[in-house]
Design brief:
The chain is built from no helices and seven strands. The chain is mainly β.
Length: 71
């Protein structure tokens, strides 16, 4: 599963699975995450106010992680 480190309004993501890609997206709180596009994590970013962060890790040949939600 991906790990989320939050410092003030800054978010850093990591995964315990070596070589895994981490995807994230912002959604309006309470909405269905299926209707927004995933972005590939490359560096820490600001949490968008009023939005929920959805994070997932995946590596080819491995089972995808659970989806983690951060408000």
């Amino acid at each position: 599963a991906p790990e989320v480190q939050k410092s003030d309004n800054r978010i850093a993501l990591s995964s315990v699975t070596e070589g895994a890609s981490i995807g994230y997206k912002f959604i309006a709180a309470g909405s269905d995450p299926a209707f927004s596009n995933w972005q590939v994590y490359t560096e820490p970013f600001e949490l968008e106010e009023g939005k929920e962060l959805v994070v997932k890790a995946h590596r080819i040949g491995f089972k995808a992680s659970e989806v983690i939600r951060v408000e």
